[in-house]
Write a structure and sequence with these properties.
3-hydroxyacyl-CoA dehydrogenase, binds 1,4-dihydronicotinamide adenine dinucleotide, Rossmann fold, 2-enoyl-CoA Hydratase, Chain A, domain 1, 48% helix, N-(1-d-carboxylethyl)-l-norvaline Dehydrogenase, domain 2, binds 3-hydroxybutanoyl-coenzyme A, alpha/beta, 709 residues
């Protein structure tokens, strides 16, 4: 063995006739400048060493290559560029083999595609997820992939960003060989030996022929364009992906590479790319907390759930899907069977759509156990209550838990608004009490607010984050207050929305403006979906304590008094005929709004869509700043993650606080001061916002550890 050292990020070693090139840049072997340089040098060395007959690329650690180094984005580029590295690999005069395990994503797959032969072992994940970061594959991915596997399959991969496993990659033609075992090094060396024995020649992917049927390839582009136009309105990179792929069909390789580069740089410079990269990093940063750094999580093997209603059943599905057993407690046998039926409904839906087999369903349901006695919770490591939102009911439940739960069991509440410090204070073990605020439907929505009361111990917080990971949720740490992070901020911008409606904007115009901004639904559509009765009940509960000077719009109450709760009653802000889930505008609603405006003495005025968004966002950002200022959210990034995963905030804008930084905090503050002239009670600039503007700082400066631009 002959060890030749290089940059530490890429090491080379001769194994007989094979030049083994190992990419070793933890944690994911991202292709930073050192790796790119190392790969260039490695190919040069292999080329000039007469004893070398083939080159093999492999990744150290858990992955082949996780892609270009996302941390370098937005910074001045350092040579060599990745396209140059890929071209160098492809032009090597000796066969180059990529032996793939773990992630071969983005630039990682592009490196593999520049190699002449590819082997993947079980567990490998191959993909071109650049679109998720607002980019397109920028190192030949849009040129080599379609030439290798055809335009239709390439567009599917590049536009969806989906990861394929080794077997699917082989079926698609992305890789040539599956490893018989997971020993990548052994498998890769054996494959390379085999190729040498066959006197295999370098086989540049640029010469692959899958685009030869030009008409079929162009038809694939047109089909994809129709889908993109429907699904990715307002997004830049999907459209650039179409154009770059079309260039692969219509232009010679070198020209196609230049076209791809031009579009790649255009996407790189876009605010959408900055927003999406921000989202990528803040999701990973949100779990880095004092408590998760300090304390080891407790064991989680069994989960107890109290209540089998909307939330209890959804949480149960999330827990069952994570492979954990569930014990569900309900008030009586009838409620318990309803709880079980709610869960089975979810799985029956999957079985009907052939996304689950009947056997798989019964094996999942075997992990579910129901009971009407609290003693059945004696073994549970984490117990989550999702009973009625009523302090007396919650306190009674916690008294039972205090009696039956084993020492060290985590006692969690899914309350939306109640004071968790007060709940914890009623039992003998407040250190074990925490909020786990799931969102509806709990088996679908990604967000989990981990609500941290004063007396909870650090390892309980660490365990909550561990549980979130097992449930594949995105967890955010929140402090105790009315509504925690998400619902507290929601209450404020929702009020701003009602003000606009009363002042002259129709709910339909507001919904459309908000959708055009990038949300999947407008606020009135959300109310209709969730049920107007929920907010009505909360408003009635709070009527006595409401500040009499605060503006109160009564339009929602008028609709609820008519029993118009939204989709479930067929009428809300929209009309839903014959069980339709798509609402039609309703002149009767407009008449109610007109009447309410007259009653309140308001002369309606017109709003531009732009003003609607300015007010909507100013209210959201200002309350987001308050939440950070009061340390309900430790950092602005926690607000961003909450809104990205719990409230449909458009990911390409990075979250409300990132959006605020993008438009400039001074301009947001100016807006708020302007709006305050009409309603100073409602529009009170957040102390934090004022302070940041005075210091010329932004929210990103408070996101310790994130790499924001
Ligand atoms: N660049 C820089 N850092 C990266 C990175 C990348 N491409 N991918 C992951 N990281 C970092 C993460 O930020 C995290 O850092 P932290 O520990 O400081 O928080 C660390 O690596 C581990 O990441 P994960 O927590 O995500 O680890 P997992 O093991 O769960 O997943 C992975 C590994 C599957 C590689 C996942 O990280 C991933 O999907 N990464 C992004 C892949 C991607 O989008 N690649 C395309 C990049 S764009 C590109 O290649 C452009 C090209 O076409 C020119
Ligand atoms: P739900 O009314 O659908 O279900 C509550 C269930 O609890 C019922 O099945 C009831 O039989 C059961 N229950 C009541 N008292 C009980 C007791 N003492 N012991 C055992 N079971 C008991 O209510 P939902 O919507 O599931 O809400 C539950 C909790 O989750 C509430 O605190 C709510 O604020 C919170 N939440 C609700 C969300 C939603 O969108 N519905 C979202 C996030 C949190």
């Amino acid at each position: 063995m002959n060890l030749e050292s290089q940059t530490s990020a890429v090491t080379c070693e001769r194994r007989g006739k094979i030049f083994l090139v190992t990419i070793d840049n933890p944690p994911v072997n991202a292709l930073n400048a050192a790796v790119r340089r190392g790969l260039m040098e490695a190919i040069d060395k292999a080329e000039s060493d007469d004893q070398v007959e083939a080159v093999m690329l492999i990744g150290a650690g858990r992955n082949f290559i996780g892609g270009a180094d996302i941390r370098e984005f937005g910074k001045p580029p350092l040579p060599p560029s990745l396209p140059d590295v890929c071209n160098r690999i492809e032009s090597c005069s000796k066969p180059v083999v990529a032996a793939i395990h773990g992630a071969a994503l983005g630039g990682g797959l592009e490196v593999a595609l520049a190699a002449h032969y590819r082997l993947a072992v079980a567990g490998a994940k191959l993909g071109l997820p650049e679109v998720e970061l607002g980019l397109l594959p920028g190192a030949g991915g849009t040129q080599r992939t379609p030439r290798l596997i055809g335009a239709r399959a390439a567009l599917d991969l590049i536009l969806s960003g989906r990861r394929v496993d080794a077997k699917e990659a082989r079926d698609l033609g992305l890789v040539d060989r599956l490893g018989a075992s997971e020993e990548t090094l052994t498998e890769g060396l054996a494959y390379t030996q085999e190729l040498l024995a066959l006197k295999a020649r370098p086989r540049p992917t640029r010469e692959a022929k899958a685009l030869e049927d030009t008409a079929a390839s162009l038809a694939a582009i047109e089909d994809a364009r129709a889908a993109v136009t429907r699904k990715s309105r307002g997004r830049l990179s999907p459209f650039k992906i179409l154009e770059a792929t079309q260039a692969a069909i219509e232009q010679p390789f070198a020209e196609g590479m230049r076209t791809e580069r031009r579009f790649f740089l255009e996407c790189m410079d876009s605010p959408q790319r900055a927003g999406l990269v921000h989202a990528f990093f803040v999701e990973r940063e949100a779990v880095k907390l004092p408590e998760t750094r300090q304390a080891a999580p407790r064991r989680i093997e069994t989960v107890g759930i109290i209540g089998g209603g909307t939330m209890g059943a959804g949480i149960a599905v999330a827990v069952l899907d994570a492979g954990l057993p569930v014990v569900m407690i309900e008030r009586d046998e009838a409620s318990l069977s309803r709880g079980r039926a709610h869960i089975e409904n979810v799985y029956d839906g999957l079985v009907a759509r052939r996304r689950m087999s009947a056997d798989a369903k019964s094996s999942v349901m075997n992990r579910w156990r129901g009971s009407t006695t609290y003693e059945s919770l004696a073994d549970a490591d984490v117990i989550i209550e999702a009973v009625f939102e009523d302090m007396a009911v919650k306190e009674a439940v916690f008294a039972q838990l205090d009696r039956v739960a084993k020492p060290g069991a985590i006692l969690a509440t899914n309350t939306s608004y109640l004071d968790i410090d007060a709940i914890a204070a009623t039992i003998s073990r407040p250190q074990d009490v925490i909020g786990l605020h799931f969102f509806s439907p709990a088996n679908v929505m990604k967000l989990l607010e981990v609500v941290v009361p004063k007396r909870v111990s650090a390892d309980v917080i660490a365990t909550a984050f561990e549980l979130a990971k097992k449930l594949r949720k995105v967890a955010v740490r929140a402090g105790v207050c009315d509504g925690f992070i998400g619902n507290r901020v929601l209450a404020v911008y929702r009020a701003a929305t009602d003000h606009m409606m009363e002042d002259g904007a129709s709910p339909y115009q507001i919904d459309k403006a908000v959708r055009d901004f990038g949300f999947p639904m407008g606020p009135f559509q959300v109310t209709d979906l969730a049920g107007g009765d929920i907010g009505w009940a909360t408003r009635k509960r709070r009527a006595a304590t409401r500040d009499p000077k605060a503006r109160y719009v009564q339009i929602p109450d008028r609709l609820c008094e008519l029993g118009w709760f939204g989709q479930k009653t067929g009428r809300g802000y929209y009309r839903y005929t014959n069980g339709s889930r798509v609402g039609a505008t309703d002149p009767d609603v407009q008449a109610i709004i007109d009447a309410e405006r007259r009653r309140a003495g308001i002369t309606p005025r017109s709003f531009s869509d732009e003003e609607i968004i300015r007010r909507y966002m100013a209210a959201m950002i200002n309350e987001g700043a308050n939440v950070v200022h009061e340390r309900i959210a430790l950092r602005p990034l926690d607000v961003d993650v909450t809104f990205l995963h719990g409230y449909g905030f458009p990911r390409f804008r990075g979250g409300p606080m990132k959006y605020a930084d993008t438009v400039g905090l001074a301009s947001v503050l100016d807006d708020i001061r302007q709006f305050a002239k009409e309603d100073p009670q409602f529009w009170r600039p957040s102390t934090l916002l004022v302070d940041l503007v005075e210091r010329g700082a932004n929210f990103a400066s408070l996101n310790e550890g994130t790499r924001d631009e």
